[in-house]
């Protein structure tokens, strides 16, 4: 996950982190998750310390050990303050779990949502909650009791967000939550006291505090604390809901509310995510050296603003970074569009000082678990596998436990391919820019597409052409020295919002013969979203930089294929024969290449009857549409010197196949690889 630069000799070497101006010191972490799995709870576990519950804990801890799981992450009792009347037995249960897991050297992370309570409004919402969200373990107060629900003297009804529309308590119809205000000092006091108690009573090793966002959307919160902060920090009053110049077209889904042409609305979005980041900072100050993580299934789209979900703002206070990668349904096989988020979160973790990235994938059966495990290895991140116990209205009778799902892959890996993902250095041939200023300001081009849409499209092209890449984000794009540390091309596609500092850094990079591929528009607005008199692209184009390539945004031709065909970009790997739908990613371990293969032509086998709440079938199994598995590639050995390689895969068991290396000519070798009998993942090591 380190930066890679091409040295004068043409080989890629890791950049020294301590000399890099943009990287903080690596966190001193007490443990590193690699093969994590969810520890699922059900409502019967509140009957701890009955013998049956204690015996179940012992059996499951032993099964986790046999499955070579190194980190157990709690799942269940999720909406934590719904269980405030039962914290004694709940913490006793978790302490028992920790002690039993610790006997096997397995770490335990708690995982809960701190800022919600379940409060379904009416019979239809009540039934929807029990149909779609029972996996969190449901035990909430009825409407009469809810008026008196409290913890440490703080009544829940008094610390909720206030809705701009009618003054009601903030509510999420998706999850039937009422929402506590991240900015309310009484809520923060309550959460502080709970965390301090949790630390006293449960010897957990790390924690994921989930839902560090605002599911109430842009109309929350108008409590006195949020109004005072908006005035103090940004100098604005929060307008009424009737102000369409602020809230925009509210006939659409809440995710699309808001008028980004209004700078006051843009500041409202900024303040909401500021508040959440401050809450995360507070949590980290309480738990100290114990690793902290939060959930984040996305970092790029504009719609995340209305949810106040901004991982980049929270990053300074986090130790682990989790991408909620995929679900249990058949669409999980279409994984390429998720590559951008995976690589983006890897870069966020890397800039935190080589922090830990994890990919969470849900599954019900072995095939889904294998797919999630394989993707984590392809991406070069830790694996968190999870079932979703009681996610459906009725779980399939043959649904598997996660320890049974992952045991074959974990044990195979330890025996045949025990590569530490943190030791691997991604081969980086291009740098793909994703500038968060565009997202923050809700910028879209004339084609109505976001900057993230363009970045994700480039990610897919790079995957399809087996080109190694990493992301460059807003801070690094402002740093001329960091940009010039590498001479791999910068991809600048539709970056509407650009700061003066970023322009200066890019110009400095280009003046030193750096290469960039530019697709307009560029710099039509500044970092606060204000339109510029003239776009900054004028300065770049008039600078006549010899390595600045302008890509026609209106061309129907794949820009990457065009650059390759014209000889303007020479990838390390070129496929000569075989099905091109095997995606290839090269990672260096001790300066030796390890080549990962992931199938882009997976075919989902649906469960015959079971479906998620959207009507999409569960993933029962996977097959492959690939028929020609005799693969031949040309490798630029100036950039990646080859060593002896053999192919391994869980699907081959202990069998390994040698990779044939043909004669090297002009710094290029041809390698022949056979992936017959492999449906999803393989590694040449």
Automatic annotation (TrEMBL):
Stored Gene3D superfamilies: 3.40.50.880, Glycosidases
Protein name per its UniProtKB record: Uncharacterized protein
Lineage of the species this protein comes from: Bacteria, Pseudomonadati, Bacteroidota, Sphingobacteriia, Sphingobacteriales
């Amino acid at each position: 996950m380190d930066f890679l630069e091409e040295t004068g000799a043409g080989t890629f070497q890791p950049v020294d982190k301590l000399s890099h101006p943009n990287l903080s010191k690596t966190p001193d972490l007490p443990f590193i998750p690699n093969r994590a799995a969810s520890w699922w709870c059900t409502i019967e576990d509140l009957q701890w310390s009955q013998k049956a519950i204690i015996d179940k804990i012992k059996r499951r801890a032993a099964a986790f050990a046999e499955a070579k799981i190194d980190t157990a992450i709690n799942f269940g009792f999720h909406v934590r303050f719904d269980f405030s009347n039962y914290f004694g037995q709940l913490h006793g249960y978790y302490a028992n779990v920790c002690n039993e897991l610790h006997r096997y050297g397995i770490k335990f992370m708690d995982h809960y949502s701190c800022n919600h309570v379940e409060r379904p409004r009416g019979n239809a919402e009540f039934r929807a909650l029990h149909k779609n969200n029972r996996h969190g373990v449901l035990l909430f107060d009825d409407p009469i009791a809810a008026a008196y629900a409290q913890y440490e003297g703080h009544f829940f009804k008094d610390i909720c967000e206030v809705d701009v529309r009618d003054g009601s308590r903030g509510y999420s119809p998706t999850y039937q939550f009422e929402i506590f205000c991240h900015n309310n000092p009484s809520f923060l006091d309550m959460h502080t006291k709970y965390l301090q108690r949790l630390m006293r009573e449960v010897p957990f090793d790390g924690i994921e505090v989930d839902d560090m966002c605002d599911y109430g959307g842009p109309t929350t919160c108008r409590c006195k604390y949020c109004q005072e902060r908006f005035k103090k920090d940004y100098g604005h009053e929060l307008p009424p809901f009737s102000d369409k110049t602020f809230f925009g077209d509210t006939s659409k889904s809440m995710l699309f509310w808001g008028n980004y042409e209004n700078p006051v609305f843009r500041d409202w979005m900024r303040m909401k995510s500021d508040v959440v980041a401050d809450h995360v900072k507070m949590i980290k100050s309480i738990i100290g050296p114990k690793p902290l993580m939060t959930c984040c299934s996305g970092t790029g789209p504009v719609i995340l603003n209305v949810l106040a979900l901004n991982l980049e703002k929270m990053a300074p206070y986090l130790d682990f970074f989790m991408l909620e990668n995929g679900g249990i349904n058949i669409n999980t096989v279409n994984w390429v569009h998720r590559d951008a988020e995976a690589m983006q979160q890897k870069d966020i973790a890397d800039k935190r000082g080589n922090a830990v990235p994890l990919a969470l994938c849900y599954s019900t059966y072995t095939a889904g678990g294998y797919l999630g495990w394989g993707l984590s290895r392809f991406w070069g991140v830790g694996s968190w596998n999870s079932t979703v116990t009681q996610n459906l209205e009725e779980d399939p009778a043959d649904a598997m436990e996660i320890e049974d799902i992952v045991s074959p892959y974990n044990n195979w890996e330890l025996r045949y391919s025990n590569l530490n993902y943190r030791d691997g250095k991604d081969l980086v041939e291009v740098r793909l820019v994703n500038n968060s200023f565009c997202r923050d300001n809700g910028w879209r081009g004339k084609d109505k597409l976001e900057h993230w849409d363009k970045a994700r499209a480039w990610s897919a092209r790079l995957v399809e052409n087996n080109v190694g890449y990493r992301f460059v984000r807003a801070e690094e794009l402002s740093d001329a020295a960091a940009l010039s540390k590498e001479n791999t091309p910068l991809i600048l596609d539709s970056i509407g919002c650009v700061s003066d500092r970023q322009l200066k850094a890019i110009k400095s990079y280009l003046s030193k013969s750096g290469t960039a591929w530019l697709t307009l528009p560029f710099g039509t607005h500044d970092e606060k979203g204000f339109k510029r008199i003239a776009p900054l692209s004028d300065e770049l184009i008039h600078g006549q930089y010899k390595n600045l390539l302008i890509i026609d945004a209106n061309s129907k031709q794949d820009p990457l294929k065009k650059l390759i065909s014209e000889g303007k970009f020479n990838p390390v790997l070129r496929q000569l024969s075989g099905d091109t739908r095997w995606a290839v990613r090269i990672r260096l371990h001790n300066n030796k290449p390890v080549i990962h293969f992931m199938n882009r032509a997976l075919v989902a086998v649906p469960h015959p009857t079971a479906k998620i709440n959207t009507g999409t079938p569960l993933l029962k199994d996977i097959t492959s549409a690939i028929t020609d598995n005799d693969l031949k590639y040309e490798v630029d050995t100036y950039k990646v010197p080859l060593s002896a390689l053999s192919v391994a895969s869980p699907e081959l068991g202990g069998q390994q196949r040698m990779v044939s290396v043909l004669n090297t000519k002009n710094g290029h070798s041809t390698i022949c690889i056979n992936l017959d009998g492999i449906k999803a993942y393989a590694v040449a090591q």
